[in-house]
Design a protein that fits this description.
6 strands, about 475 residues, single chain, transferase activity, six-stranded mixed beta sheet, membrane, glycosyltransferase, transmembrane helix, about 10% strand, alpha/beta, transferase
C-alpha cells in the first residue's frame, strides 16, 4: 500500500511538472495560422463552422477571457485539460482492464498517453484535437462505470447517459468522434449483456442532444461542414496507396513515439482476443483510417481520437512500460526545447514548428506599416490562415478576408478602395506590380509573400485583437 501511495504521488508530481512545462510552451511559441484562424472563430461564436464544430472556438473564448488575447490565452485550456483528462483515464483503466492490478493499470495508462508527442506537444497548442482528447478520456471514464458488472442496470443508467453526452461533446470538438461511437455500437450489438440493458439505448438521446448544435448549424447552412468533411472521400488515388499507407504509419510512429507505438499495436492485437470492448473502440476508427489511406492521404493528427483507448489497450499486452514512457517523454522534451529555443539552427523545411510559427510579428508589422505609408486603409488576404494570423498579430490596419468561407460567419461584408493584397509568392497575380516580403528568422527567409499595390477589394472584415 505504501509503495502504491508513493507511486501515485510521484505520478501526480510528474504530471504537475509537465503541466507547467506545457503552459510555458503554450506561452512561448507563436501561434500557427490555424490557431489564429480558430481565434477568429472565438471572436464570432457560432454553433458550427465550415471546417470543424464549435468546441475549439469556445475553449479559446474561455481562455482569452481569463488570460486575454495572448498566445497563452488562446491555448490556456489545453495544458490545464490534461490534469482532469489524466485523472479520468487513470480511473477508467481500473474497470476497463479488470485483470490488471489497481492502481498500477491507471498509472500506466495515463503515463503512456502523456508520453506521446500527440498529447505532450498537442496539449500546448489549441486545435480541435485538444478538446477532443479531453472529452474522449472523460467518456472512457463514464463508460467504464456504466459497464461495471457490480452495478445493477438501474444504477448504471446515469453513467450511460453521461457517456452519450460526453461522446456528443467530443463530436462537437471534431467529427472523428463518431468513429468511437460506431465502435461502441459494435461492442453493444455483439455483447449480449450490454445489448439487453436499457442503458446503451437511453444514451442515444443524450448523444443527439449534445450533437444537436452542430447539426442545427449545418441544417441552416446547407450542410456545408458535413459535405466538406464527407467530401474528403471523393478524392481517390489507389495508385498512391503505398505512399499514403507509409505516411499514415510513419506519422503515428512519430506522434505516438516509436516504443509507445509498438505497445499500442501489440496491445490492440491482444485486445482482439481478450477485451472485446476496447477492440471495438479502437478497431473501427483504425479500419476507417487504413481504408482511407488506400486512396487518399490521412493527416497524422486524425487518429488522435484513438489514443486514449490505445493507452489502455496497450496494457493488455502485459509488457513493461518504463522505457516506452521514458523515451516518449525524452523525445517530447527535445521537440519542446527545439520549439522554444531553436538550439539546432535547422533550415525551415526541416523544422515544421519554425516553418509555421516563425517571423510573424516582424513580418506583419512591416507589411502593415508599408501599406499604411502607401495610403492603404486595410490589408487583404484570400488564404484564411494568412488573414487570421495578420489579424491576430497587428492592430495597425484592419484585415479583410476574401475567401468564400468567411461568408458563413456573422460578419459584415465590406468593400475597401485602398487595400494591399498579400498572398504567398507562388500564387502571385500576373500583370500587377508586387513587392516581396518574407517571414524571416535569424536573417533566413521562411516563406515569402507577394504584396500588391493598393487595390479595390470586397470581403469580410475580420475581428481585431483587443
Amino acid at each position: 500500500m505504501g509503495e502504491n501511495s508513493r507511486n501515485i504521488r510521484l505520478f501526480w508530481g510528474l504530471l504537475a511538472g509537465l503541466t507547467i512545462i506545457r503552459l510555458y510552451l503554450a506561452a512561448s511559441v507563436p501561434l500557427t495560422p490555424d490557431e489564429a484562424y480558430y481565434w477568429v472563430w472565438s471572436r464570432n461564436l457560432q454553433l458550427g463552422y465550415l471546417d470543424h464544430p464549435f468546441m475549439v472556438a469556445l475553449w479559446i473564448r474561455i481562455g482569452t477571457w481569463i488570460a486575454g488575447d495572448t498566445t497563452l490565452g488562446v491555448r490556456l485550456l489545453g495544458p490545464l485539460s490534461v490534469l482532469p483528462g489524466s485523472w479520468a483515464l487513470y480511473h477508467a483503466a481500473r474497470r476497463l482492464l479488470p485483470g490488471s492490478p489497481w492502481p498500477q493499470s491507471g498509472l500506466r495508462a495515463a503515463l503512456l498517453l502523456n508520453a506521446t508527442l500527440m498529447l505532450g506537444l498537442g496539449a500546448a497548442t489549441m486545435t480541435p484535437d485538444t478538446p477532443l482528447l479531453f472529452f474522449i478520456t472523460l467518456f472512457l471514464y463514464t463508460l467504464s462505470r456504466a459497464i461495471d458488472p457490480e452495478l445493477i442496470a438501474r444504477a448504471a443508467l446515469p453513467w450511460w447517459i453521461g457517456s452519450g453526452l460526453l461522446l456528443g461533446l467530443a463530436f462537437d470538438s471534431k467529427y472523428t468522434a463518431v468513429l468511437i461511437g460506431l465502435g461502441l455500437g459494435g461492442a453493444v450489438l455483439t455483447t449480449k449483456r450490454l445489448r439487453q440493458q436499457p442503458g446503451p439505448w437511453l444514451a442515444l438521446p443524450g448523444l443527439f442532444v449534445a450533437m444537436s448544435p452542430v447539426i442545427v448549424w449545418n441544417a441552416r447552412h446547407h450542410w456545408a461542414s458535413f459535405i466538406r468533411q464527407g467530401g474528403r472521400t471523393g478524392d481517390w488515388h489507389p495508385a498512391r496507396a503505398l505512399q499514403f499507407m507509409g505516411e499514415l504509419i510513419g506519422g503515428q510512429i512519430g506522434l505516438a513515439t516509436p516504443l509507445v507505438f509498438i505497445l499500442f499495436v501489440i496491445g490492440l492485437w491482444v485486445c482482439v482476443r481478450r477485451n472485446r470492448l476496447l477492440a471495438w473502440l479502437a478497431l473501427v476508427p483504425t479500419a476507417v483510417f487504413v481504408a482511407h489511406a488506400f486512396g487518399d492521404r490521412v493527416q497524422p493528427n486524425w487518429p488522435a481520437v484513438i489514443y486514449p483507448v490505445l493507452a489502455i489497450a496497450a496494457l493488455e499486452a502485459g509488457w513493461r512500460i518504463r522505457w516506452p514512457v521514458v523515451s516518449g517523454l525524452v523525445i517530447t522534451m527535445i521537440v519542446c526545447i527545439q520549439a522554444i529555443f531553436s538550439p539546432l539552427h535547422l533550415v525551415p523545411h526541416r523544422d515544421p514548428v519554425l516553418r509555421l510559427t516563425g517571423g510573424w510579428d516582424e513580418f506583419a508589422r512591416k507589411v502593415a506599416l508599408q501599406a499604411k505609408a502607401q495610403g492603404a486603409t486595410a490589408l487583404a488576404a484570400e488564404d484564411y490562415g494568412l488573414a487570421s494570423r495578420l489579424a491576430f498579430t497587428q492592430n495597425i490596419l484592419p484585415v479583410i478576408g476574401t475567401d468564400p468561407r468567411w461568408d458563413l460567419f456573422r460578419l459584415p461584408a465590406t468593400a475597401v478602395a485602398k487595400t494591399v493584397v498579400i498572398e504567398e509568392q507562388r500564387h502571385g497575380r500576373e500583370g500587377q506590380k508586387a513587392a516581396t516580403s518574407c517571414r524571416e528568422v535569424r536573417g533566413q527567409a521562411i516563406r515569402c509573400y507577394a504584396v500588391h499595390e493598393p487595390d479595390f477589394v470586397t470581403g469580410v472584415r475580420l475581428p481585431e485583437r483587443s
